[in-house]
Amino acid sequence: MFSSSFRQSLKNTLFKRSATSSTSSKSIIHSSILPLPKSSLLIACALGLGIYSLDARSAINEYVYCPLIRFFTTAEQGHILGIHCLKAGLYPRLFSDFDDKILNVNVFGKILSNPIGMAAGFDKHGEVIDPLFNLGFGYVEIGSITPEPQPGNPAPRFFRLSADDAVINRYGFNSVGHLEVLARLKYRFNNLINKNPNAELNSFQKDKFLAINLGKNKTGDEINDYLKGVQNFGPYADALVINVSSPNTPGLRDLQNESKLTNLLTKVVNERNNLNGELINPNIKPPILVKIAPDLTEPEIASIAKSAKDAKIDGIILSNTTIQRPIDKLITKGDIVNENGGLSGKPLKPIALKAFKLLRKYTKDSNLVLVGCGGISNGKDAIEFAKAGATFVQLYTAFAYQGPGLARKIKDEITSELKKEGKTWMEIVGSDDK
Ligand SMILES: Cc1cc2nc3c(=O)[nH]c(=O)nc-3n(C[C@H](O)[C@H](O)[C@H](O)COP(=O)(O)O)c2cc1C
Fold this sequence. Notes:
By secondary structure, this protein is of the alpha/beta class. The protein has 2 domains: 4-29; 98-433, Aldolase class I (TIM Barrel, Alpha-Beta Barrel). The protein is built from 15 helices and 13 strands. β12 (369-373), α12 and β13 form a beta-alpha-beta unit. 44% of the residues are buried. It binds flavin mononucleotide (FMN).
């Protein structure tokens, strides 16, 4: 590992250090550094930097590596590079990732060790499930997956608004299709069940969930595409998400209309009930959540709440990206702001939170689990969504900007805030109602 010249310098240094033990500390430092040849010093620095960078929490990830990646890549190239690095194991680790019990979430009859989830769209094809869990997420949602492979919209289709910590995307459900993701999940399952035959969750992680987000093909059937998703992925999921809110598939958001949504979700629930159960535990069938847009009026939100209750689904994720452009609040100017697609990241937060509060108004009389998403980038944002009624939260864009230590950072911020308030996460969920 060390070059011979470096080893020799180290020896010399150590020797000199003992020989000069009676001299002042100033002269010890002087004599221990100067004899090192320049190349050895460089190697030592590189080694130190390497070790420092290995920790996902190091500031160097957010302030050096992420900006460098942004400088040298387009948004889509950066995304692909991130997936490749995670897949190849080339990512910094969390050397200790203990979730304090005050972060525990009671949800769907199980315990989630922390309330921070990776939202759909980052790992569309289920390639980096375990690396994401290793980075501290309590919940990882893969997808959206469409039944048949489809390329999505032509590039460019992903744009950074770096000054706003935001992005616009119009990927349009680029998906490798059910079969490829299924093959990947089957391989993962067979591999992990041998190592961990007593696992209780499809995530194969203690108190962490693997969720699978289902989409429809551009020219697919607006009911059957989702039913196929339930049949294929139900056995591998700790939760299934019905995505009817991507702004980039023509007509998709119309599925949020009350009669269409009640019809779709009722069929999805029936299909889920007909499953033989999850592979990991045949006595359990995955909860169903629907993911909705932030661009809804109050009557639309009320009607979605009614559909969800009538169809007896288990939860609602709010929200997907927005088609709004809060121009006066954006620092980024120019044509990029008007690119078609969905805006996510910091500017989405007030829009999503406002819609979320309305959703809470129409669901607090039910057992529906609400999941907050949209512009969450720190512990304060997560707590705001929790107090407004989110049982847990998800994020994506902030991860792209802040890098691999983000989940851990947010968990630490929430833990310290909860300790100050003398409450647990579950005690603050919906506390704004009171
Ligand atoms: C590049 C990109 C691709 C996305 N793809 C999907 C998707 O396939 N399915 C989905 O339900 N949401 C998708 N989303 C939406 C995110 O899951 C999330 O709801 C949204 O970005 C808001 O959260 P954020 O502000 O933390 O990013 C995507 C978001 C981005 C930025």
